[in-house]
What we know:
By secondary structure, the protein is mainly alpha-helical. The chain is built from eight helices and no strands. The two termini are 116 Å apart.
Amino acid sequence: MTELSFPVSSVxxxxxxxxxxxxxGQEAKHLNKTDLTPSPKPEAVQMLYMRVLxxxxxxxxxxxxxxxxxxxxxxxxxxxxATAIMSVYMRMRQFLPMCFxxxxxxxxxxxxxxxxxxIVLSAIMNFLQFRKERMNMMQEKQAKYRADLDRMQxxxxxxxxxxxxxxxxxxIPPEQQAEADELxxxxxxxxxxxxxxxxxxxxxxxxxxxxxxxxxxKAQKLAQMxxxxxxxxEDVAKLKSQIVESxxxxxxxxxKMRDTVKNTKNSIEQTDETVVELQNMVQRGxxxxxxxxxxxxxxxxxxxxxNNSKQQQQEHQQLMSQQEKKQKELRNLCNEIGQLKRxxxxxxxxxxxxxxxxxxxxxxxxxHVEDVLRQxxxxxxxxxxxxxxxxxxxRETQQxxxxxxxxxxxxxxxxxxxxxxxDTLSTAMDELQRKIExxxxxxxxxxxxxxxxx
Length: 454
């Protein structure tokens, strides 16, 4: 006990702990500091040890005083007084090594000392605190295990419901199967037609863009040619005002101007034709745009249907992902449950072994208790017989006492008579002695006289 593995508490802490955790009722109220200091009371210490054994092993305090007696044992009363203390001593010797106390003696029960009792009580307090913490941890684990089981059941139900929903969403009823096939075929046809029309529209848009670029170039050329014509007209007007040259030069210039005018007219006619063609192309483009708008509306409807189908697919994927997550959680929970089941199986095996041991111990104890009860019954019968004999003996003793008292009275009376007779005899003997002495004196005188006469 030089190096302790647990803290030694003060007297106040020990008393408060045992009041709260071990004792109940009036015992907790009556436990005081004076029971442990300055010199511990044996009754209080024994009561604390009994209550600790009852708390840990369910061994009741009255069971300590049950005596396993034999039939022909001598002086059973002496053993009844020592049985309770010896029982507490033996069970504390078995229990205290778990608290790291190895030097418990019988003197610690009969005449306990303050430091040793404080060490033992603090060791028991440390063990009880450790036991309470472990019991709380086990209760928390059991509660967590129950919550996990409930959660697993809820997840299993949700998985079943999700699987039912997925089956409902993925499976098409037979009534709507034909419509679904027709819709799928129509969708495929529409997709192909829309693809071809998109291609045609794109080609037409490209051609229209090319024609628009050509028209813009020709319009620029026309504008340039109009500017050139205006410049030429101004030049012609200037030249007309300044004509001084020869007529041959004028004719050549006029021919050149006519050629340029013809060329401009031809170009204007060509541009008009191209404009008419472009207008026809624009009208055709508007018709195609109307058709494209209609097709676009159809495509929007198809896109809305496709979006709905995509949303359904996304919901399906989300449900599948949730199902996978829940399956993973279920696997984790199944692994945890397997571990917990293994731990439970180990615990159940240990508990079954402990229960078997306890049952064996209970059976042994019950047999022992039955034997003890039989012996006790036999002892009680013998005690009753002995009590009857003792009563008879007490009656005889009372009768003897009465006879002795009567004999004492008679003896006292006879002693008084004998004393009286003794007194009378002693007085008579004294008188005889005197008379004999007087007679002897007279005889001596007579003898003296006779001898004188002779």
